[in-house]
Design a protein that fits this description.
By secondary structure, the chain is an alpha/beta fold. It contains 13 helices and 18 strands.
């Protein structure tokens, strides 16, 4: 006989755990394919270094969410609050981030080039229309910032991150997370620097991002969580799910944070895979025997001859005595990283950038995030809306960064899960 549950939750990452926290009902079951909770928010502790699977720093806009998490953590002093210091490594020199507000820090000729192209950008669009899809993300960069700023930083950096041609992405692929700036802000920044953005101040647990995950898992009964148990298939008509162990579970509502295309595969709904593309990221976590650059929290690398697109400094966030880095390298979805070759290249490029100099590597960890960044396109938006309408009629909902096929923060995941839980709770109360 099949198990039954009112709410079947697929995935014990931030989204799935948050949903369980805000449901009024205890009649739920969480399935997690991995042996541990957390999704991409897992934390590694090795040789005294604390690393996440990648850099997860928290920018809470809703004080209620932050207070909720803090209240479920062992002690309030487990979390540090940091005023962000981020830089750009550009052709052997350092600039402040964001690039477009700090073009005055470029060499004089390049500054004049960027300023000129910014001012006359509308005139240049006519000549660009045969080179670039102006309705795309790349087109937006040229339209808003001109050729100089777009081609020196915004295009090469984001092509390294997304591992694709930016012509493929929707204009609003990054939403509120893209650091827009108008002419007045750029000019004003030359005299009165103001590089604030959505993550100007962030928090981070001293024992890694897993502490926020554990806070969400704190009150979840052991019997409501099945580890090492994934979802194999979903029969939408009968509302029956089959797990990877062959067990059947009947549900009233199913909420998944699995990548949306994987959910579609489990339901057998027809769709085109090319509508839902994404890229991988190879992450190296590296621990060295001594400190490196002080103060900076992460640095962006647009130069194409540098292998990585971003380097982050855990030691400058946690005030620890040895340099602790995360290194991120974008890969297409079908790319297969050669980890040994990439490590050698990374160490070489870190030395070229002046980040290591006589340092000894004493600990390391690597992970391929697959998927890492979904590619938000006009087609993916339309197909996501169409397919989620079909799923919702069968009581199936897809949430989170990958389930929602979107670009969002961890706080956004919690807020989305809370909103859905409140919808369920309201129906129960009616």
């Amino acid at each position: 006989m099949a198990k039954t549950t009112k709410y079947l939750i697929v995935g014990a990452g931030i989204s799935g755990l948050a949903l369980a926290n805000f449901l009024d009902s205890d009649d739920y079951l969480i399935l997690e394919r991995e042996p541990e909770i957390g999704g991409w928010c897992k934390t590694i502790v090795k040789e005294g270094f604390v690393w996440d699977f990648s850099g997860h720093f928290f920018h809470f806009r809703d004080p209620e969410i932050e207070a909720y998490l803090r209240a479920r953590m062992p002690t309030d002093d487990e979390v540090v609050t940091v005023v962000r210091d981020s830089r750009i490594y550009y052709q052997g020199t350092e600039l402040d981030f964001p690039f477009q507000k700090n073009i005055h820090q470029l060499p004089h000729d390049e500054f004049i080039e960027c300023l000129y192209d910014l001012y006359f950008r509308e005139e240049h669009l006519e000549t660009l229309k045969d080179e670039v899809d102006l309705t795309s993300f790349k087109g937006m960069l040229y339209e808003k910032f001109g050729r100089g700023i777009a081609e020196k930083f915004l295009i090469p950096y984001n092509e390294k991150l997304y591992a694709c041609d930016l012509d493929l992405l929707d204009r609003e692929a990054m939403g509120r997370f893209f650091p827009h700036a108008n002419m007045a802000e750029i000019l004003r920044n030359m005299r009165n620097p103001d590089n604030r953005s959505y993550n100007s101040t962030f928090t981070y647990p001293k024992q890694g991002a897993i502490m926020y995950v554990n806070a969400l898992a704190k009150d979840i009964p052991e019997d409501n969580l099945l580890l090492n148990t994934g979802l194999q298939s979903i029969d939408l008509a009968s509302k029956t799910a089959t797990t990877t162990s062959g067990e059947e579970i009947q549900f009233e509502h199913l909420v998944s944070s699995a990548p949306f295309d994987k959910l579609l595969n489990m339901t057998a709904l027809p769709y085109q895979q090319e509508d839902f593309t994404y890229n991988k990221v190879l992450v190296f976590n590296l621990g060295f025997d001594k400190k490196g650059p002080e103060g900076v929290h992460w640095t962006y690398f647009p130069d194409r001859d540098m292998r990585f697109y971003r380097v982050g400094f855990y030691d400058n966030i946690l005030n620890t005595p040895r340099m602790s880095l995360y290194i991120e390298i974008g890969y297409p979805a079908d790319g297969e990283p050669d980890v040994d070759a990439e490590r050698a290249r990374v160490l070489k490029d870190l030395e070229r950038a002046g980040i290591i100099d006589g340092h000894n590597l004493v600990a390391e960890h690597n992970i391929v995030l697959d998927p890492a960044y979904v590619h938000i396109t006009e087609r993916s938006r339309a197909e996501f809306a169409r397919l989620t309408d079909i799923l919702s009629t069968a009581g199936v909902y897809s949430i989170g960064r990958y389930g929602g096929w979107t670009y969002c923060s961890i706080e956004d995941n919690i807020l989305e899960a809370r909103a859905l839980a409140r919808r369920f709770n309201a129906v129960e109360e009616a």
